Amino acid sequence: MKKNVGNIDKLIRFVLAAVFAALYFTGTVTGTLGMVLLVAGGVLVATSAISFCPLYTLLGMNTCPREK
User: Are 49 and 41 in contact (CB under 8 A)?
Assistant: First the structure.
């Protein structure tokens, strides 16, 4: 897997995942929507950790800086 997630993108994904988790664990969002947000947050953290997003590959996107 070639890295396609840059540092700023990683930070944004982590912040969004934290917001989703906070919404769920404070009880602001419950039920099915809460579970969907929790799973989405998990996916965001996972793709941030491995620096690879399969959706970016399908869309031909790359936020990782070019290597020399």
Answer: no
What pLDDT score was predicted for residue 67? Answer: 62
Q: How far apart are CA 57 and CA 10, in angstroms?
A: 16
**16 in Cβ contact with 67 (< 8 Å):** no
Note the pTM of the prediction, 2 decimals. Answer: 0.86
Distance CA 39, CA 12 (A): 17
Contacts of 41 (CB under 8 A, 6+ apart): 16, 17, 18, 20, 21, 24
pLDDT digits (tens, 9 = 90+) for 16-29: 999 999 999 999 99
